[in-house]
C-alpha cells in the first residue's frame, strides 16, 4: 500500500504531448505546427542575436547570485510596464502604476488571479471561446469559483463574433474578471478593431467589469510594439483600473527563462502600499523570489537605446517572415483548389492560424503526413518554411477532399 495509491492520472497536456510525439517520429517529412514557438526559415529555434549580446553584458556585470527583491528587479519591471503602457513615468513615480516580476506570462496571470480572488473578492472570470488552453487551469488554481466564457470565434464566417462578444459581456455579473488578449489572440489570430475595442471598453465600464489583459505577443501581431499595445493603452486612457500580464517568451525568445511582468494600474494613491504588500505576500507564499537571468536580459535590452533598436528590428524581421508564410500558404491552398475559402489565413495575425480544420482532419493529417497540429485546427505559422509549406498545403487539401 502506497500513500500515492489514490492518485489518478491527469490527462496529458495536448501541446507538450504533440512535441513529444513529434520528437519521437522518425519520418523525414515530419512537420511540427503545434507548440507556439518561433522557428527560423531552417525550422530551427531562434537565439536572437541581440539577446546573446545582452546576455554577455549580464554575465560581465554579475558579481553574485543574491536574491532579488520579492517584487522583482525594478529596472526590469519599470521598463516592461513602459513598453506596455508608453509614457507612464509620472504614474510610476506617484506609484499608481507598478510592475511585479513574474514567472513569465503564466506566473503573472496566476499571481494576479490570486490577488483578485483574495483581495477584491472576485469569484467569476470570463475568457474567450476559444482561448489559450491554460487560462482555465491558471485561474481556477488561483481560487476563482466560476469559469465563464464569452463568444469570440464565429466558425461559419471564420471571423470574430462581435455581437456575441458584446452580448456576453453585457450579461456578465458586475465585478467579473474579463481576460482580454491584448493582441495576436491565441489561438484564433484575430484581434478586435479599434472601434470594437472601444465598444468593449464602454460595456465593461457600464457593467463594472474588471479587465485582466494578457499580453503574451506584443510586437508579434503587427511587428510594431507600439501598435500592438493600442488596446491596453486605450483602457489606460479611459481611466480603467486593471491588471496586465506580460510575457517575454515569444517576443524576446526567452521561453525557458520565465521572464514576465504583472502590471497593476490603480486610480488612487491611497491603496498603493496595501496592494503592494498583499502582492508581496502572495509571491512570498508561492515561490518567494523571482529568477534573475531572463529579467536582466530584458532589462539590458529595454534600457539601452541601441540594443532596443536592434531588438525592434529583429521583431520586424520575424513578423515579416510569419506574414510571408501566411501569404504563401494561402497561395498554395488556392492553387491546389483546396475546398473552402482561405482568406482568413492572411487576415489573421500573430503566430497562429485557426485553420478551420476539424479534429478528424487533424488526426488524418498527423497519421498520414506526420504533420502535428492542435486538434482545434490551430497551427503555428512559424513552423512553416519554403521547404515544407507545399507539403503542408497538399496534406490539408487531401484531408478536405
Ligand atoms: N497567454 C497566452 C495567450 C499565451 O499564448 C501564452 C503562451 N503560450 C502565455 C500567456 C504564457 O506564456 P509564458 O508563461 O511562456 O509567458
Brief descriptors of the model:
14% strand, Asp_trans, two-stranded parallel ribbon, alpha/beta, 16 helices, Aspartate aminotransferase, 401 residues, seven-stranded mixed sheet
Gyration radius, rounded: 21 Å
* Structural class determined from secondary elements: alpha/beta
Question: Distance between termini?
Answer: 54 Å
How many strand units? 13
**CATH class category label of the largest domain:** Alpha Beta
Largest beta sheet: strand ordering: 2-10-9-8-7-3-4
**CATH superfamily membership of the largest domain:** Type I PLP-dependent aspartate aminotransferase-like (Major domain)
- Mean pLDDT over the residues: 97
Q: What proportion of the residues form beta strands (DSSP E)?
A: 5-15%
How many discrete structural domains? 2
Helical amount: 40-55%
Task: List bound small molecules.
Answer: 4'-deoxy-4'-aminopyridoxal-5'-phosphate
Looking at the structure, the CATH topology of the largest domain is Aspartate Aminotransferase, domain 2
CATH architecture grouping of the largest domain: 3-Layer(aba) Sandwich
Unreliable spans are none
The topology string of helices and strands comes to HEHHHEHEHEEEHEHEHHEEHHHHEHEEH
- DSSP helical segment count: 16
Strand count, sense and barrel status of the largest sheet are: 7 strands, mixed
Shape, principal axes of CA atoms: globular
